[in-house]
Amino acid sequence: MSRPIFSEDEPGRKWDKCVTDAVLKTGGGVAIGAVCSLLFFSRKGWPLLFGGGFGIGMAYANCERALNNSLYGQTLLKSTKKC
Question: CA 58 to CA 54: how far, in whole Å?
Fold first, then answer.
């Protein structure tokens, strides 16, 4: 039997998902940067920072979208263009 989900718990759950997403994406970006650094860039440090920056940026965009949807509701934009 599943537990009921209260509306007070929703922001906390979203923040938990955001933190988890940020850790995973940043770690993945740094790992890919490390592999590229070892294979292609003769052990430079900038690919690690570049990959980590991409991971943080992607996590931030996903988190912002999730939190804004919960605050403002999921509204669908209707096209006003007439054919």
Answer: 6
Would you put residue 43 in left (φ > 0), alpha (ψ -120 to 50) or beta? left
| Cα distances (Å, whole numbers) of residue 28 to 15, 33, 41, 43, 79 | 20, 8, 18, 18, 38
Query: Residue 30: its pLDDT value, please?
Result: 94
Contact status, residue 23 vs residue 55, Cβ threshold 8 Å: no
CA dihedral 7, 12, 15, 19 (to 10 degrees): -150
Contact 47, 36 (CB under 8 A): yes
**Which helix or strand (DSSP H or E) is residue 17 part of?**
helix 10-39
The yes-or-no verdict on residue 62 having pLDDT over 80 is: yes
Distance of CA 25 to the CA centre of its chain: 7
